[in-house]
Protein 1
Amino acid sequence: MKNKIAFVAVGQAGGNIGRLFEEKGYTVIYINTSQEDLDTLTAAKYKYHIPDGEGCNKDRHKAKQLVVDDFDRIAAEIDSKITQKMIFVIFAAGGGTGSGAGPMLIDLLTDEDKTVGAITIIPAKTESVKSHINAYECFSELVEIDATAACFILDNDRGEKMKLNPAFVDAFCSFLEIPEKCKSEEGNIDKAEIEETLKAHGMAVVLRKKADNSAKVIDALKDNIFAPIESDQAVKYITAALPAKIAMTDIQKAAGVPIDTFQTVSKDDAAICLSGLSYPTTRLETVYKRVDDSRETIIKNLSATKETSLKKGVNFLDEISGGRKSSKQPEPPKRPKARRDIMSKYLN
Ligand SMILES: Nc1nc2c(ncn2[C@@H]2O[C@H](COP(=O)(O)OP(=O)(O)OP(=O)(O)O)[C@@H](O)[C@H]2O)c(=O)[nH]1
Ligand SMILES: [Mg+2]
């Protein structure tokens, strides 16, 4: 799949995860407003520092403006290095650079020729209110992009963050390697089926699990590194290489009945991807609640210190408090709008 899928890693967390994909032989471009963040990626082949960027100190708007001002060069850089038709943009939702730039880049890079998905991260509950404000704003933008492919949502509440990175990359790469590694006369999964699975709009999860029975796999699907899957919800595809003793019907009982399944036999670990899931509304509501609970304290602190830099975030939350995003079912992809329209939407 290395000639089919490439990665654009934005911000520090994006870089940390992108680096692991590059180690496995995938094409990765690292984009950052911070030269210091890029300097930590000593083995990276393609690094792009957005001119005039000095890091965005968790300011999403600063990141967006820098990307808009430099977008022609960013796009040329991506076009010259990435020939693959499917791109995953990797970014943390809780920071500045990746959170601000990630959704907008997905929107801008999607066209008739390219499918673009997301690999993003929800902050742990112990992280700051600002991280939570950023994450909520970031997801508010992400869920509005109808044409996004699969969106993998790592949840920093599900373990130590630096351990989530390799767990995700290993599981994702195992899934991508199914066509090469698992061949069976009982049925194969080909590259087109992997792509079809990853093109599905909505949340996706991947799992690699050593297991000799279905119960272990089902437990691992429920308790893993991703934002929790909503109960009783839609799933579009279940694509899996399963050891002989594990039945697809059992997975379906736990994950829901998909529109289609792609299945092969694995002689080793189970490798599974569920895609076309609803976004994790319940988890995102806990992000919202954390912000809402802190609102009074933030306003008090701001007026005490006369700082106004957080007001935008608070105003944003005031605006949406009357009408929070409901859990929408995935919609069919629409053709992307003109670049200028997309950019102005994110800067408003
Ligand atoms: N899972 C995981 N989370 C990370 C990692 N690095 C940072 N985070 C989380 O990502 C958020 C911060 O995002 P960063 O990527 O550091 O921020 P950035 O995009 O570089 O933005 P600025 O530095 O603010 O300009 C916080 O929620 C962190 O807990 C990582 O390697 N893995
Ligand atoms: Mg940074």
Protein 2
Amino acid sequence: MTRKGRSTPAIYVWWLGSGPSPDGLVASVGRHVEHVFGLGAAVWTAPDRPTRAFDPLRGQHSSTRILEWLLEQGPAEARKLLGVTDMDLFIPILTFVFGEAQLGGRASVVSAARLAPAGLVRDDDRLLAARLAKEAAHEVGHSFGLVHCDDRRCVMSRSASLIDVDVKGGGLCHDCWTRYLDLRDQPGGRDE
Ligand SMILES: [Zn+2]
Ligand SMILES: [Zn+2]
């Protein structure tokens, strides 16, 4: 990932999956969020993994608990923290989520579990890489304070299914981009 002229990257991408890091996949997520948001991104490779996120009754991981964990464990210099995992994520009211973010906060998480064709997370899977990059950008967009967009081609449009994910593009529509520029430059936006 390039960091042209930027001293520290703003967005830290951290593999939090069950197995070894699919490095190609994680790097492509980093490059994509860097491109969409015009900020430097870096891969963070600490070996720590979220604790207390697994719900034995549901057999899934709580995305909200992962966000809490990211805030506790993530590097302090990161403006935005993006966890990438292969664990199946949920929030209580939904059977699963592709990801979750704190709206206008620092932490977000995205999962490959429901995006992988046939449920198999492979480093060289281009369809998975494209889907994961879109949903990662979507969650990072939320963490900058962007809300859902009605333009189905915009990366901030809601994804309830894989069809929604595949229909949308990887970038922000003009309106979301304009809103993002305002949000990005808001004073105090670094510390929420
Ligand atoms: Zn969303
Ligand atoms: Zn939009």
